[in-house]
Structures are given as structure tokens and as C-alpha cells.
Amino acid sequence: MSILRRPFITAGSKLLQTTKAFLFDCDGVIWKGNQPIAGSIETLNYLKKIGKLVFYVTNNSTKSREEVLKKLRHFGVNSSLDEILTSSYATAQYLTTLPDPGEVYVVGEEGIFEELEAVGIKCHGREDNDQHDISALEHMNTNVRTVVVGLDRSINYVKLSRAGSYIRDFGCTFIATNTDASFPYPGGVIAGGSGCIVSAIETICGKKPDCIVGKPNRSFIDIIRLHHPQIQISDMLMVGDRLDTDIVFARRNGISSLLVFSGVTSESDMKACDDKLAPHFYTNSLHDLLPLLSSC
């Protein structure tokens, strides 16, 4: 599609009818913190009711798919595990394609550990959660061959240093779950994302990640098409609140895109952005889709 920045209502009913698979970001689209965004739950359930495929594609690596499913169901969404794609899950799937990822040092939270361990990968890193003694760096595990970095809200100096040393001094593969700079938080404040930690480790080891798994890269697309080969790129619509991840992800992979203003991006941000970041359509929130869905 070549026409950008159109109000969703201008093509809403037709696009909703022809779209077979809806890809939703979560934070800022479905919920903020622990509160659902008005109209989001009703919209998701109605899409399922009329036979649409719905996928939740989130760069949030702190939660496992099971935890995201629990949250969706708590909010009243009729969902199943195979609809949920987190960057931690996609990272685990990516590592299974490598000839020998070895043992993994994780800078991140339980979502990464759970997904990696679920596919049989031995992980390290929990032992450094409360480690503040730099002398701990004298003991490095030579079985570690890969470093996986995601959001880590208990990040400390030892974790950063150990990860950087594994990459620089031991030649370990450097994998980032995503490089989001920030994420929305209730109260109008901004919270640092995985990208802050990835950048710190880049500075320590002098190397960029060998692979960035999450949006805007195509790992989520590959997983969806592996399990649903009948779904074509032209059948998909990406719905997100971030220009640099959700919309670039859609544009880079040839998917139609809908930006909602319920998260980190405002209408003025969208109007001022470069065309390569611009969505095909925009609207205030998922609540705006409900009247259009009734005609599908």
C-alpha cells in the first residue's frame, strides 16, 4: 500500500472484512500496566467470534507466554497459548535453530529463563540478581556460549560486566530479545526498555548484537506462518502503538499497519514522523473498531 496516515474509518469495514489475521501489540494497545484500555477486550473477543485469527505479538521479554495468557484471561479475553508470541518465546525458538547454542547467560527476567528452559537450554544468570561484589567476575563459566539480553529490572554492575566479558573475552554469541528504548507506564511517566541494557553491554564489549529477535525484525512472522501456512502476508494487519517497532515491523515485512494513540505515540508524533515510520492507518484506540466490526 502506498497511501499513508489515513484515518482508519476511511477503509475500516472493508479492511476488517478482508483481513484474516490480526497481530496486536499488548502494552499501550490492549492494556497499560495492569489496566485494560477501554474497548480493547470487547474488540478482541468480537474478532474471535466472527472467525478472525488473532495473535498477540509483544516485545516484552519479562513474561512467558503462560503469564501473558493468564493476564489476557484475567481481563476476559478468550485466548489460547498458541496465539501468544513474546520476544522471550521467539528467542527460545531462534536458539533451537542454531547448531550449538551451548549454555546461556541471561540478562533478563523469568520470562526468558522459562521459555529457554522449556526447550531444554541450560541457563545462568539468576545467581547474579543480588550480586554486588565485583570479585564474582573472577569466576566465569566456560560452558556459556550465548548471552541473551532482555529487559532486566534487577540489572546491576556485575550482570552488565559478566555479559560483556562473555561476549568480548569468551567469544559468546550476543542475542537481544529486542531493543525497545522505553515502554509506557501509568501516570504519564516513561520507563526504560531493553534497549537501554543492550546499549550498555554493547559499550562494554564493543560489539552489536549478532541477532535482534523481536520487532521490527521478522521472527514473529516466521513463527505464525510456520503454524499457519495458509496465511499470507497480504492477509495480515499489525495493530500497534509504537512507530519504531510495531509500524516499522509491518512496513518492513509488507503488512498493512494500524497505529493507535492509546500508547506511546501521539497524533502529532505520527504527523511529524518520516514516511518510512508512518502507518497506513491510524485511530485513537481499539474501541474505535467496534462499530465497524458490526458490519463484518
Q: Short description, anyone?
A:
Substrate binds at residue 215. The chain is an alpha/beta fold.
Describe it for me?
It holds the Pfam family Hydrolase_like. It comes from Blastocystis hominis. Keywords: Hydrolase, Magnesium, Metal-binding. One of its GO terms (molecular function) is metal ion binding. With 296 residues, the protein is α/β, with parallel strands linked by helices. It has two domains: 133 residues, 3-Layer(aba) Sandwich (Rossmann fold), CATH 3.40.50.1000; 114 residues, HAD superfamily/HAD-like (Rossmann fold, 3-Layer(aba) Sandwich). Helices cover 34% and strands 20% of the residues. The strands form four sheets. Strands 1-16-15-14-2-5-6 form a seven-stranded parallel sheet, sandwiched between helices. A five-stranded parallel sheet has the order 8-7-9-10-13, with helices on both faces. A two-stranded antiparallel sheet has the order 3-4. Strand 15, helix 10 and strand 16 form a beta-alpha-beta unit. The longest helix has 14 residues. The radius of gyration is 20 Å and the shape is elongated. The two termini are 22 Å apart.
Key terms for this structure?
296 residues, Rossmann fold, seven-stranded parallel β-sheet, five-stranded parallel β-sheet, 34% helix, 4-nitrophenylphosphatase
Q: Topology, pairings included?
A:
Elements: E1 6-7, H1 12-18, E2 21-24, E3 31-32, E4 35-36, H2 40-49, E5 53-58, H3 65-74, E6 84-86, H4 87-95, E7 103-107, H5 110-118, E8 123-124, E9 144-149, H6 157-170, E10 173-176, E11 182-185, E12 189-192, H7 194-205, E13 211-212, H8 219-227, E14 236-240, H9 243-252, E15 256-260, H10 267-272, E16 281-283, H11 290-293
Parallel strand pairs: 1-16, 2-5, 2-14, 5-6, 7-8, 7-9, 9-10, 10-13, 14-15, 15-16
Antiparallel strand pairs: 3-4, 11-12
Helix pairs in contact: 4-5, 6-7
